[in-house]
Input
Amino acid sequence: MPEPNKDEWEQIAKDYDEKWNYLHCIGALDSKHVQIRCPAGAGSLYYNYKGIYAIVLLALVAANYKFTLVDVGAYGKNSDGGTFERSEMGKRFESNKYAVPKDKELLPAMEIPYVIIADEAFPLKAYLMHPYSKAAITSDEEKVYNCRHSRARRTVENAFRILAGRWRIFLKPIETKPEIADLIVLASTCLHNMLRNTSTNISLFEGQIRMESEHIHGVANLEPIRRNFVREVAITRDKLKKYFVSDYGSASCPWQWHSIRKSRVAPRRVQYYLLNTRIRYNRPF
Output
């Protein structure tokens, strides 16, 4: 698929700001493990943590669920972060080879770059944001950032769900060689983008995905992954956090403070007591 130019990157960022309330985002990044039949003599190269043989579809997705950049064919045993760093996409982002727009000043004396958003399986970089670790959150401002991050990052998960719902071959192992499976996956992403451009009807499964995305603002529970990184790399995320809680950034999301307070989970003993109380008195959940 064609590489976006500067104007197209800016349009993607504008769409993320308008639809998902995350500014300067040029895409959500994630990987999908596509199950295949174990190739002869492959050993454990394609065997992944889910206990299946798979190739990896690494994708950068725009705000409208279209695939912007994809990389297909990595071994299933590789981690998401390792797959990204070894991919051509990751190498080009690392060396700043894409026509990504330059930083812009959004608050006085605060320039914020254009970034990619991902989950904690990917490393934190100046251009690649992942949420604050759940085990290390110290303030409501960090929870607000995670809430906005989680809401915008859901686009890549929704794109994978739409892809699998439309092309049923993804619901079972692909019975062919890995090289052919790579071409099938690439072709399906191109057809997916073509249908996103031409189709005016919303299928049942896509309508449900949109409804869930618009009404669920909570933060998904993310397993903490501890890793060392240079403090300067986290400055960009802190800038975004500061913008989201400022008067400028919170104007488009008046629900964010209520959302993080509503998503607070009671201790297990309290949950157990409430459950028994509701059952005993036949109260609705």
